[in-house]
Amino acid sequence: MKIDGKLFLEIASVLVLAGGLFLVAFQVNQATSITKAEVGAESTSRWRAVDGTRQSEIFATVLAKSYEDPAALTLAEMIELDAYYMGVIDQMSSAYSMGNSGFRDGPIEDNFSQAALTYFGNAYAKAWWKQYKTVLEVGEESRFITLFDVAVAAAGDSRNLDSYLAIKKELAR
């Protein structure tokens, strides 16, 4: 059976076009994977910057005071803590936005829970969040607020201090 030259060209064109579309789909998938990896790396870098503030001896003293005796904080210390907690909220807001855009995998509630346990497991942070979230209520952040409220409420008022005391207890053995 002899194949018509026109039919052969049409079949070849379809195959080349399908191959090209497959290549484009592969490249889009690869670019998406690279973008997700970059977003993850950038997020980690920003978290390290937030955590880096705790490494300052002066700030570590302020943070410890907020765990041990929050009512004794001076206004200047509260302002310093304000910037720290705003950094945490900025990170969580960014994670929330990335999750809504499809750039983060897994349930955002897990990220909120981890952040709340790490940063908001103390009475001062909870009081700060109660005041600060009113700023967010002006925007379109109601779901973010609701999810983070649940995570903060579950963190406990002395979780941060209790963690450090447990480490000291473990070391005393």
**Helical amount:** over 70%
Assembly context of the chains: single chain
Number of helices: 7
* Largest pleated sheet: none
Mean pLDDT over the residues: 83
Q: What gap, in angstroms, lies between the N and C termini?
A: 88 Å
List how many beta strands DSSP finds: 0
Would you tell me the structural class of the helices and strands? mainly alpha
* Shape type: elongated
What are the secondary-structure elements, in order, as H or E?
HHHHHHH
The rounded Rg comes to: 25 Å
Strand coverage percent: under 5%
* Low-pLDDT runs: none
What's the gist of this structure?
The protein has helices at residues 5-52, 57-68, 75-100, 108-119, 123-136, 142-155, 159-172. It is mainly α. Helix 3 packs antiparallel against helix 4 and helix 5 (123-136) packs antiparallel against helix 6 (142-155).
